[in-house]
Amino acid sequence: MEKTGAYGHEGHGFTTNNLNEKTAYYTFPMADELTAIMFDSTNPNDGPDGSLNPAQAAWLTQTLTNLHARYYDENSALIETNNKDQLIVLFSHHNSRTFDNLTHAL
After folding, report:
1. What is the pLDDT of residue 88?
2. Which end of the chain has fewer CB within 10 Å, C or N?
């Protein structure tokens, strides 16, 4: 029988921080060197299509930076880190064809 934590199945990724910050995006390990990133692509300003608000986009940038040994910054400079490279699997509530809600997400 699968263990259940306070906010869903153990290892799911949703934390007390998510509740306190009213966010629904997070990461969770899927296997060694394989990390899942879950987006909250629901736009709170209406519409059926998905989007990311600025805070989530900034979180995503930082998360991807933390999961790689090197990356290119906004000026196209190669940045080397001490981070270990991870393979990434992205999850969202919307597929790539419907990820175009331009209604301003706060």
Report:
1. 96
2. N
Rounded Cα gap, residues 68 and 84, in angstroms: 6
Q: First and final CA of the chain: distance in angstroms?
A: 40
State which H helix or E strand residue 31 sits in.
strand 26-31
Question: What is the C-alpha to C-alpha distance for residues 9 and 14, in angstroms, rounded to an integer?
Answer: 9
How long, in residues, is the chain? Answer: 106
How does DSSP assign 34-95, residue by residue? EEEEE---B-TTS-SSB---HHHHHHHHHHHHHT-SEEE-TTS-EEE-SPPP-EEEEE-SS-
| Its pTM surpasses 0.70 | yes
- Tell me the pairing of strands 8-9 and 26-31: unpaired
The residues near 100 (Cβ < 8 Å, ≥ 6 apart) are: 49, 50, 51
